[in-house]
Structure formats: structure tokens, C-alpha cells
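Quick note —
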Amino acid sequence: MNTQEIQKIYKWVWIVLIILAVFLGIQTLLALKGLRNSDPSYNSISVSGEGEAFAVPDLATFSFTVSADADTVSAAQEEVTKKIDAVVKALTDLGIEEKDIKTTDYSVWPRYSYASMPCSPSYCPPSTQKQDGYTASHNVSVKVRKTEDAGKALAAAGDQGATGMSSISFTVDDPDKITNEAREKAIASAKAKAEILSDQLGVRLVRVVSYSDNSDGGVMPYYREGVGMGGVTVAQDAKAPTIPTGENKVRVVVNVTYEIR
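Predicted structure written out below.
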């Protein structure tokens, strides 16, 4: 092996060593950066804040059922259609728009009657089953945007043959608005706590490194005279039931972690 070939080998060895050193240096820097970001708890503080917002409900919802029995499917459906048309007209006469009256279920099923057979001293035969016509059922949900008319809407539906009225509730048409208001208060509370804590510790808040929140909403009902705990009853001097709307409350709790220096 001559001198020129030896120099060429040394040259490639140095190139490989330089590339390896650069690669190891980059990997070391990335490892150190990952180690710093993996656990910021050594230079952070965590605080929580709570906020509440209240709103008087501006939307009432309820559901009802209209059903009819007949000898044939078509006759049962025709009877249900007449009743539903009458209920819808009564509701729209109150100013409720048709877009707020929605079908949630429609079904037809056969009805059966059962007759007991005479028993002997040693044996009682099973009852006999006989088809006895059909039942058609139409379930509807209603939104009442004038909450003061909720009782009138219930009475109007009942007067036209609606039964099974249930799921009466009062909500806010724009729930995000009240939730955002509660969240804003919660964040302000958490920030104030963090500033006080940083002053007491003699550190400086740098940035938010993590955030989470959770909310719960509920109804705080108030009851007027003559109204039972169920929230629906017939007033003594009025045809329509008295429906207290209560007050909706949203509570938001936030957890914020700040980097400190």
C-alpha cells in the first residue's frame, strides 16, 4: 500500500468521525430539550378557578303522544292524523311556529284481546289470543319560545286529545353564551390566584403551559303558591297549568398551569 492510498483512507476516516460527532451532538441537544419539556413541574405552578353565570330560561320544551284505536290500520292512522292536525292548529294559534313542532316517533301495532278458557279439575288451558284491531301512535316534541305560554301550550294540546305529556324542561336557547360567561369568570379567578401566589413566592409568571376546564349546569327552580314539587299543576283559578321556569345556572371550574421563573 503506497502513501497516497494511506492518505486517502485517513481522509475518509476523518470524514466519518466528523459526521458521527455532528450526529451525536444533535441527538444530545434533542434529548436535553425533550427532558426539559417532559416534566415542567419543576418550574411551574398550578391554580384553579371557579365561575358561575345565571340566566332566566327563554325556551320551554315538552313532548306528547296522540294515539287512536281502530279495526284497520288505515282507520287508526286517519284518526291519529285528525287529532294531530287539531293539536298542531291549537299550538300554532298560540304563536308556536310549525318548525318548532317535531315528530319524534310514529308507529302502528296490532292489538290483541285474551279470553280465559274454562278449567277442568285437573287442567287449565292457556288463554286464547285474538287480534282486536290496531293502535296508531304519534309522538311529538314542541319548543315554546315564549316561556310564559308553556302552560297554555300544554292545556291546548291536552284539550285536543294529546296524552302522555312529559319531558317538560326549561333551557337557554344559546347555552354557549352563559357557559362562556362562567368560563371567563373562572379564568379571571385562576389568573388572580396565580398572580398572588407568584408574588408570595417571589417568582414571575411566564406563560400558560396547560389548561383544562369542566362545567356543570342545572336548574334552580322557584315555586309559586299552589305549585307542587313536580313543577306542574293546575292552578286553582286558571285552566292552563302553572309552570315555574326557575333559573338556569352554569358552573365552570378551570385548572391552569403557569411556567414560572
